[in-house]
Structures are given as structure tokens and as C-alpha cells.
Specification:
heterodimer; A: alpha/beta; 20% strand; B: two-stranded antiparallel sheet; 4 helices; 10% helix
């Protein structure tokens, strides 16, 4: 009976992890960036920094508000709600302080863009990652 | 720089900016963004205070004010990695367009950015975003930058700014010069402004100070009878040497945003005697204002009876709180504000450079509470409803009156 319960729990955990796969940060496969501080990632996506830590130019690629990965990225990696991010960029735009990153329509569009643009950095659901991009480990 | 221009000129300016940068865009060296918003407002005031022929307090409901839809069009263009241009135009229609901002900026490094042209100075939490505040950001402009009683000019013609990363955040600064909207000065002094702030946790927390000095005597940017000044000098002053200093903070705790600020403007001013005679005779001032302007309020109103010592201080502060939450219908932000404003030198008559809030009080002081809510069914559309109540002394008694506002705004090009 106990073994049966353990199997049920493990099966549920497996099912759960595949349903709620994590959002990962990706760069072009040719980019030598493998790790990045979370604070640097935030600065790039908030328009505060335009370079990777190795000095190479960084172009952030966002996803549209309605995409499934956007909320997870904003809250999980930037630590803000999407509404707060929108408010932040409104302030920047209306004061001439900058404009938000380009927004693409979902994981596959970001995957395709990053795989074709060496300077870009984006995020996708981990289940769609392929060999044309590299997952960046966040510190 | 603020002046009416026609639609053709706007289009020409935008195209002029677009053509060269579009060519550069093919090389990946530039970026052009055009965006803005449309806004519309309904406002009504109840039981506005006045004094009848017998000297008793009377109240009247002001007619409902419906503003025509207005628009802001902005263009931001990056040229290479170091330079950018920003234009901000606004108006109610194609024949009544103001140039609010037009500037170019060159980034030497993160510590030093040079900006030249008409630009909103960095000053407190609101000045740079004030155009968008009334309808989109969701909180009314603070009294500091109410266009009826500005305590300093909002724009400057030159600015140096930059930032230094410190720990989890950054310290940013700006230094500004301004002779754009203040009046002429005898000594050709250059007014100076500054802003120093620390932001951390990606801007969730902000604390800072801002200041400004006219750096000598200056005069108003408008003549008496031409409406409210766009700088801090009243039109009946012969000269005014003034300084502004203040502190501000903003704190975002999860969904709750708190703001607070305090400002003080100290004026070392001399009234123009002939202007005061005009004001006393024609502006409908109250007894306290008459006592302030004249040496002997019971004597004939002549230049020799004017008290030309116009030294005074303006003090204002506010606290604000907003709570944002989202459900399947969109985003909701209920909010509360408390504003305090004290300006003993002002009068009510706006045509003479006064303001209908502090000038309507016995002593130039009022408090204002505001509660409201913003609803955004989609991120680019905002519907806002709020109500404010003024508390003040009027005709020797404590009085209050209320107003409501309903705003709609839509952001395009985002």
C-alpha cells in the first residue's frame, strides 16, 4: 500500500513538472555567455544595461503580455508583476527615457529570433529549447 | 518654445526625423518609435465658495466641464548607441499644437549624458511624466506642478545627468540650467536646478532631493493680466530672487505603492507698486490679501500705499497610496491622496496670475483629500474616476467643497 502511494506521488510530481515547465533565459548558440547574474538580466530587460557581462552588446527580446511565458518571467525573474513592468515602461516612454524591448508573439517566435541574432537575449519555456540557442544559467 | 503649430509642420518634423534614421535602420544603427495617447475628461465642482453682496458665504454648483479630446504624440529616435532625439507634441486638434519637449541627447558614458533643447527637468517624482499622469499613471498632478500655481518652471534648456550603480540600486543625478520660461534678469544670472536620488530594487524604492535657485533677481514670464505664470514668479513682482528645495520618496511593496514629498519655495521679492494698485482695484481680492498688499488697507489705493516688501514662502506636501490588483476583467488601482498647499501671496483671479484654489482661501492654505479608482481592461486603455474635497478657511469659517473627475485615455503605438 505504501509503495503504491509513493508511486502515485511520483507520478503526480512528474506530471506536474511537465505541465508547469520553467521559463529559461536563452542566447544565441554562438554567444559565449553561459552564466549571468540575475541583477544583470534585470538591468538588460529594464533598459538599464545594453551589454553582457563580457562586454558584448545585448538586445533584449520580450514576449507579448498575453503569452504564457511572460507572467512567469516578469514575476519569477524580474520580481515584478506585468502591470508594474508596463507602468515602468510608460514612465520611461513618456519622459524620453527609453523604449521597451521588442515584444514577440510567444516562445517559438523568440526562439527563432534569438537563434538568428547573435546579440539577442530572450526567454522561453524550457520545453521548446533546441540546439540553435543556449540556456543561460542565472546566478 | 511652446507655441501653436499646424499639422503640416508636425508631419514634416516627423518625416524629417524618420527619413535619415530609416536609412540608418537598415544598418542596425538606429531606432525610431512613435507613440502617444489620447485623453478625454469630464469634471464638475459642487458648492464652490463665493461671497454675496451682503458679505455672507454663498455656494454655487459650477457647470460641468467636458474637455475636448486631447492628444500627445511622441517620437523617440536612437542614432547609434550614444545619441537620441525626443519630441513631445500635444494639443486638442491639428491647429492647436504645443511643443512640450524637443531635445537631443548624447551619452558620453553612464555617468555623463548631455541633453540640449526644451526638456522637462528632473525634479521630484512627477515633473517628467506629468503629461501622462492625469489619465494614465492614475494619480492627479501634485500641487507642486499644478499649472495654476507652479512653484518653478517645468522645463529647462540644458541638462547633464547620469547614474552610478551602488549595491542593489543606483544613485542618479541631474544638473539643469533654465532661462526658457523665467523672465529676464538684470545681471544675466543663470538659474540652476538639481536632482539627486537613490533607486533600488529596480526602482521599487526611490528617495531623493531636488532643488532650484533663480540665482539672483528675476521677473515673471507673463505680464499682469495675461494669466498664470509658467515659472515661479508672480506677475506683480518687480523682482524676485527665489529658491526651491524639497525631498521625496516612493515605495512599492508588492501591490501597494506609497509616495510622499515636501517642498518649500522661499521668495525674496519686491512688489511692483503700480501692479499692486491694478490688482487691488481690479482682481476682486479678499480682505486678508488687501491687508497684505497695502500699508494702510483703509487708505486710498495709490502706489505710495503699497507694501513693496513681497517676501513669502510657499510650502506644499503630499502623501499618496495606491493598490494594484488584477483579475479576469483587467487591472484595478484604488488610490488615496492627501495634498497640502500654503501660498500666502496668491489671489483667486487667474487672469491676474492667481489661482482658484489657494487664492480662494482666507490665508492661502488648503488641504485636499482625493479617493479614486483606475480600471484598465487592457493595458493601453485607462478609465479613471475620482473625487476630491477641499478643506480651507473662507470668509472667517472652515469650509469645504467637492469635485469629481472622470478620465479616459488610450495609448497608441506601444
Amino acid at each position: 500500500m505504501t509503495i503504491k502511494r509513493i508511486l502515485i506521488v511520483l507520478t503526480m510530481a512528474l506530471f506536474s513538472s511537465s505541465t508547469f515547465a520553467e521559463v529559461v533565459v536563452i542566447v544565441n548558440a554562438g554567444n559565449d555567455t553561459s552564466t549571468m547574474k540575475k541583477s544583470q538580466l534585470s538591468r538588460i530587460f529594464m533598459g538599464k544595461a545594453t551589454a553582457f557581462e563580457n562586454g558584448g552588446k545585448a538586445v533584449a527580446i520580450n514576449q507579448i503580455t498575453a503569452s504564457s511565458s511572460r507572467a512567469g518571467f516578469d514575476s519569477g525573474l524580474l520580481g515584478k508583476t506585468t502591470a508594474q513592468i508596463n507602468a515602468y515602461w510608460s514612465k520611461q516612454m513618456f519622459s524620453g527615457g527609453g523604449t521597451p524591448p521588442e515584444e514577440l508573439n510567444g516562445d517559438l517566435a523568440v526562439l527563432q529570433y534569438v537563434s538568428a541574432n547573435p546579440e539577442s537575449i530572450g526567454y522561453v519555456d524550457s520545453s521548446v529549447v533546441n540546439g540553435a540557442v543556449k540556456v543561460v544559467q542565472l546566478q | 518654445m511652446r507655441k501653436g503649430i499646424n499639422l503640416g509642420l508636425i508631419v514634416s518634423m516627423l518625416l524629417t526625423s524618420l527619413v535619415p534614421t530609416t536609412a540608418l535602420a537598415a544598418d542596425g544603427l538606429s531606432d525610431v518609435k512613435i507613440y502617444g495617447y489620447l485623453a478625454w475628461r469630464v469634471e464638475k465642482v459642487w458648492e464652490e465658495l463665493s461671497i454675496d453682496a451682503l458679505g455672507n458665504t454663498d455656494t454655487t454648483d459650477a457647470p460641468r466641464e467636458i474637455t475636448v479630446p486631447s492628444f500627445n504624440v511622441m517620437m523617440q529616435s536612437k542614432v547609434g548607441d550614444r545619441a537620441k532625439v525626443f519630441i513631445n507634441l500635444n494639443g486638442s486638434d491639428a491647429d492647436n499644437v504645443d511643443v512640450s519637449n524637443v531635445w537631443g541627447e548624447y551619452r558620453i558614458n553612464q555617468y555623463v549624458n548631455l541633453r540640449v533643447g526644451e526638456t522637462y527637468r528632473k525634479f521630484g517624482l512627477y515633473n517628467e511624466i506629468l503629461d501622462a499622469v492625469p489619465t494614465y499613471m492614475g494619480i492627479e498632478p501634485p500641487e507642486l506642478f499644478d499649472k495654476d500655481h507652479l512653484i518653478l518652471s517645468r522645463t529647462t534648456l540644458g541638462m547633464i545627468h547620469g547614474y552610478v550603480p551602488v549595491g542593489d540600486g543606483e544613485i542618479s543625478y541631474s544638473l539643469t540650467v533654465d532661462n526658457g520660461e523665467g523672465g529676464p534678469t538684470d545681471e544675466d544670472n543663470i538659474p540652476l536646478g538639481f536632482d539627486l536620488r537613490y533607486e533600488w530594487n529596480l526602482g521599487s524604492y526611490v528617495m531623493g532631493i531636488s532643488g532650484y535657485t533663480s540665482n539672483g533677481d528675476t521677473t515673471s514670464d507673463v505680464s499682469l493680466g495675461s494669466g498664470s505664470p509658467r515659472s515661479g514668479v508672480l506677475p506683480w513682482m518687480a523682482s524676485d530672487d527665489f529658491n526651491v528645495i524639497g525631498a521625496f520618496g516612493e515605495f512599492q511593496f508588492e501591490h501597494l505603492k506609497l509616495q510622499a514629498a515636501y517642498w518649500r519655495a522661499s521668495h525674496d521679492a519686491t512688489r511692483d507698486a503700480d501692479s499692486i494698485v491694478t490688482v487691488v482695484n481690479g482682481a476682486g481680492i479678499n480682505a486678508n490679501q488687501r491687508n497684505r498688499f497695502l500699508i494702510d488697507p483703509t487708505a486710498p489705493v495709490v502706489a505710495a500705499n503699497v507694501d513693496t516688501n513681497g517676501d513669502y514662502d510657499v510650502k506644499t506636501w503630499y502623501v499618496r497610496a495606491g493598490y494594484s490588483f488584477t483579475n479576469e476583467y483587467g487591472e484595478f488601482v484604488p488610490y488615496f491622496q492627501w495634498d497640502n498647499y500654503d501660498n500666502p501671496e496668491t489671489i483667486e483671479n487667474k487672469s491676474f496670475g492667481g489661482d482658484a484654489e489657494a487664492g480662494l482661501t482666507d490665508d492661502g492654505q488648503f488641504q485636499k483629500s482625493t479617493v479614486g479608482i483606475i480600471y484598465r481592461p487592457i493595458p493601453v486603455l485607462a478609465l479613471k474616476f475620482d473625487t476630491s474635497t477641499h478643506f480651507q478657511d473662507f470668509n472667517g469659517k472652515s469650509e469645504s467643497f467637492s469635485e469629481i473627475r472622470f478620465d479616459v485615455s488610450y495609448i497608441f503605438g506601444r
